[in-house]
Amino acid sequence: MSQITIALSKGRIFEETKPLLAAAGIIPAEDPESSRKLIIGTNREDVRLLIVRATDVPTYVQNGGADLGIAGKDVLYEHGGEGLYQPLDLQIAKCRMMVAVHKDVDYAASVRRGARLKVATKYVKIAREHFAEKGMHVDLIKLYGSMELAPLVGLADAIVDLVSTGGTLRANNLVAVEDIMPISSRLVVNQASLKLKRAQIQPIIDAFAAVVSKGN
Ligand code: ATP
Ligand code: MG
């Protein structure tokens, strides 16, 4: 039997993937939050888990460093998804991609005036397409985290970021003003692996699909 490698990020994706793995008969041997290991074994001799940065999951799977992976649509969109088979929306790690501004800013008025806004984001591709569709000219500022800070110190007029409860926005005096798209995580599969290891991979896809169709 060949080895099946699944790339996951720790944190919410790992936590929300555990029940899916369990449905496929896969139990991680260690908790990545407390272990320093980047390769984690499972109860199944033929299955191992790789712990990688969320944004690196598509790269590992695309290049065959992993056969399967789980990544947010945000990450897949920015990556482009070339060479990845994406059979399933897993309905986990759900949130929304939104535009937010400082609560004292009249965003609608700026848009009406045709003001050229500075927009800070980690999601440059999503932001560029969103504002292009609206016919707005914006200057994009690429950040790697803590986007909420940018409008507070005058680095940007707006941010494009993921929002779930809105708690982080509120805590930083920001409000969401536009909803760009709903986000959830998808299963991604290396196309060659699917052909060569179908007998092992298809049952995992099917077990995940059964959990998803039950509404998690
Ligand atoms: P890092 O925190 O290591 O910089 P990251 O922010 O991309 O990386 P996570 O915060 O674990 O990593 O997010 C992983 C994925 O979970 C994201 O790509 C997104 O799809 C989803 N996600 C992010 N924030 C939320 C949220 N607040 N609620 C639900 N899902 C989220
Ligand atoms: Mg994060």
Key terms:
216 residues, alpha/beta, D-Maltodextrin-Binding Protein, domain 2, six-stranded mixed sheet, five-stranded mixed sheet, 9 helices, elongated, binds adenosine-5'-triphosphate, binds magnesium ion
Explained architecture:
This protein has 216 residues and is α/β, with parallel strands linked by helices. Helix content is 34%, strand content 30%. Strands 2-3-1-4-11-5 form a six-stranded mixed sheet. Helix 1 crosses helix 9. It is elongated and about 65 Å long. Adenosine-5'-triphosphate binds next to helix 1 and helix 3.
In short:
By secondary structure, the chain is of the alpha/beta class.
Q: CATH-wise, what's the superfamily of the largest domain?
A: Periplasmic binding protein-like II
Low-confidence segments, given as residue ranges, are none
CATH architecture of the largest domain: 3-Layer(aba) Sandwich
* Elements, N to C (H/E): EHEEHEHEEHEHEHEHEEHH
Number of domains: 2
Topology:
Blueprint: E1 4-8, H1 12-23, E2 39-41, E3 47-51, H2 57-62, E4 68-72, H3 73-79, E5 84-89, E6 95-102, H4 107-113, E7 117-121, H5 124-133, E8 138-142, H6 149-152, E9 158-163, H7 167-171, E10 174-183, E11 185-190, H8 191-196, H9 198-213
Helix pairs in contact: 1-9
The structure holds adenosine-5'-triphosphate and magnesium ion (MG).
Residues 9, 11-13, 53-55, 72, 74-75, 93-95, 145, 162, 164, 183, 185 line the site of adenosine-5'-triphosphate.
